[in-house]
């Protein structure tokens, strides 16, 4: 089986691991990932990424000239894509830019013009209802008519596609898995000492952007209500709410309870997660987020949850978006924005060491079963085979 994948996501080599493993699951599988030659990720990443060709056996990443270097929906590829398709002749073509992407329309059209007879698939994270105006509505309608199968990153995304009239096969799978060899339990005495963490401290962790929709103010207020307990809050990341959190913590006399760590390289994140007694993802649905075609945001997956679970760190998450599906019964879930409920979750873990151990074990088992790169690759391949 020859599989072609197109996405800006894979300009980062680390993100390609699922596809590399899929190509090596068994003989006869070839995976070619095409990426834009140059991409500007945005957010904390200020520099453009210049892609490189690389190969590992039957897996390869091929940069292709591109138009639009920063907008996912407007990304499309240059004429050098045509000889690549003619040479590779894939059986599966999966474009990971959503249902209304120009790149997906482009690959669908080239599939027909070049007589490839490949199955057309797309991946989407989008998990809120939306309305499309012309001409974007026309592009999505064209794309959906030609689609053989969909990989949705979350259950809400699958449900929305059904509401929009798509009746074909859908698999609910995250785009990226977790590397269980990197994210694993490790003691970190030197790092703990460096950060001023003592054995009696109960470390509540947060890893991600310091923005309102991630609910970190809710977490702060829940912690403030249990200031009589020996907690410290380890925050790994950056964002515009950092200054506000520092100010209110100083006003409340809690500055010494907050441990700030600027964004660190991904391979170092497990070191910090392993300092935590719990990791909290308190995401909150927001209407303030806007794209060209939609308004609103709710948690699309919460990748840090599976990283913590792989480290056998108990997790607490809000019920925003996909979080309850990711955690299932392997952690604690509270209603988004509910300070009292989050406080109670924290107190459960502070007082109940047995519960912490049980959730750590369940989380680890869930990650190994569903969320490692290999586990996702196996499920992805099974879905592809079901389409023939």
How are the SSEs placed, and which strands pair?
Elements: E1 2-6, H1 17-23, E2 30-36, E3 38-39, E4 49-50, E5 54-56, E6 59-64, E7 66-67, E8 76-77, H2 81-88, E9 92-95, H3 102-113, E10 119-124, H4 136-145, E11 149-152, H5 155-163, E12 170-172, H6 189-194, E13 202-209, H7 216-224, E14 231-238, H8 242-251, E15 258-261, H9 269-273, E16 278-281, E17 286-290, E18 295-297, H10 303-310, E19 315-318, H11 323-327, E20 332-334, H12 339-351, H13 353-371, H14 373-386
Parallel strand pairs: 1-2, 1-9, 2-6, 9-10, 10-11, 11-12, 13-14, 13-16, 14-15, 16-19, 19-20
Antiparallel strand pairs: 3-4, 5-6, 7-8, 17-18
Describe this protein's structure.
This protein folds into two domains: 2-177 and 373-386, Glycogen Phosphorylase B (Rossmann fold, 3-Layer(aba) Sandwich), CATH 3.40.50; 189-371, Glycogen Phosphorylase B (Rossmann fold, 3-Layer(aba) Sandwich), CATH 3.40.50. The strands form five sheets. The protein has an eight-stranded mixed beta sheet with strand order 5-6-2-1-9-10-11-12, with helices on both faces. The protein has a six-stranded parallel beta sheet with strand order 15-14-13-16-19-20, sandwiched between helices. The longest helix is centred in the C-terminal third of the chain and has 19 residues, at 353-371. A hairpin with a 2-residue loop joins strand 5 (54-56) and strand 6 (59-64). It has helices at residues 17-23, 81-88, 102-113, 136-145, 155-163, 189-194, 216-224, 242-251, 269-273, 303-310, 323-327, 339-351, 353-371, 373-386, and strands at residues 2-6, 30-36, 38-39, 49-50, 54-56, 59-64, 66-67, 76-77, 92-95, 119-124, 149-152, 170-172, 202-209, 231-238, 258-261, 278-281, 286-290, 295-297, 315-318, 332-334. The mean pLDDT is 95. It contains 14 helices and 20 strands. It is an alpha/beta fold. It starts with a strand and ends with a helix.
